[in-house]
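Step 1: inspect the first sequence and its tokens.
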Amino acid sequence: MCLDSIFSQQTKYTYEVIVVDGGSEGIELFKAEPQWSSVFWISTDTANPYISRNIGIEASKGRVIGFLDAKCIPSPKWIDNAMRSLTADERIIVAGAYKVIANSQALKDKAYGLLYLNNKKNVAKGYGVTTGNLWTPKNAFLDLGYFADQFVSGNDILWTKNAIKKGYKIMYAEQAIVVYEGQSYEKLKGSIEKYFTGIAIQHKNNKKGLFSRLAYLAKQFMPMRFSNFQESIDYRGLNKRSWLDKTYLWFIIWRLKIHMAFTYLRRMIGL
């Protein structure tokens, strides 16, 4: 469980735990349990992850903020391994590693995370990263602004991309690991709908030109490069699978990318 793992951290640092809840079922009974008495609980009526993150940032008292999704389980030395990469330089952001646990043994359910949850690759290539395992100086939000709370998905990637443009450096902390529960293939398709709706809205609000949006759309239709696919399955520990399994997974990823493209196209036309 996430909170159990946070309070079991083997760390030399003093830290506060802030949980911003957007109306989870049964949360009041959970909050009443004595082992969570030191948690700073904040409730919001809006189930929007960026509104929740912004509320948590405002409430925090520390110099550094570590973000986790509710379903993430941090490793025992997660805090220390992340903080090791942070220096006195206030323009350093740290992205940790994801260890994805598949939703089931079905091969198609192992596709979760192969496209986006490889922070080693994302940091090396200068891509944006997600807040499921992210550490940043609090002052970065005073400098760059908070998350755009009109979106429900994708804004953490946009925020970190903007940080890179503004001169911040994102470091990859390989030992700052969180275990991330994957979604089934069917649920993943639903998440893609939400994510690419957010991306389409962002592109419209940022006045991205038609040519740029069409280029982005065309890129989504393209299959994943074999080199990137091999890197992703190595990162996920799927490299010992048979060539038949790997081929099947590659086609599953391409099918997901096509679904992304059509979602983006529908939202682009409808906006």
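Step 2: inspect the second sequence and its tokens, then contrast the two.
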Amino acid sequence: MRYNPKKKSDNNNLNRGTRTVKRLNKYLSNAGLCSRREADQHIAMGLVSVNGKIITEMGYQVNPGDEVRYDGQRVRASEPIYLLLNKPKGFVATAQGGVVKKSVQELIRTAHPENVSPIGDMGRPITGLLFFTNDDALRKKLNNAQKKILMVYQVVLDKSISAAKIEMLKSGISLKGFVYQVKDVEYIKGGTKREIGIEAYNLTPGTLSKMLEKLEFEVLQMDRMLFAGLTKKDLPRGNWRKLTLKEVNFLQML
């Protein structure tokens, strides 16, 4: 299973590229005030003003330096955040909110004290790539099964997996009325038949574990090596980095 890591470019380009005009509903959403759909409702109700003028126009563009107020209160929108973490064991990722012991947010909090949610959940034993963003439009895109977001996992099982069981994974496994399948499975070069690489679209670590459990395997290790074209190149376990402008543009074009 081969893939080409993307070449890293200057992160400063991303910082320059994000300070542009922004739709009013996205401005409110990035501020953590509400979703974009809710923002459209607030705008239609005349609750939002820009530079002292009530705005009810859908698609209104906010410029850098504009003063936006919601129900009389000043709104300060956060800059878009795009982070990639190489998650270590022992931490948990959840987009459900609430207080969680050893949350992955603790690993990025030194640079981003605000709560930036990860895309998807990842249990404590699972390691590998985890993407964080406050860009609501991109979150929806990456969570859309029709977009076919490619993921690559390296998995160690409690026993060897046969070619027949691999074909079952490719054909599809039924879980709670839904059929899930993987794109490809290969034995890891130089490893045993307990060690496999799995390519799949929009498949969470939790769902993949349940598929393997249904085939009577116990997952001893699972590491996500690739997420939507992003790799672990130059990203040690437990570390994170900002995405480059090129990487952000690539994700937004998916």
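Step 3: confirm your contrast with the notes below.
Residues 1-18 have pLDDT under 50 and may be disordered. The chain has three domains: 11-75, 82-144+230-252, 150-227.
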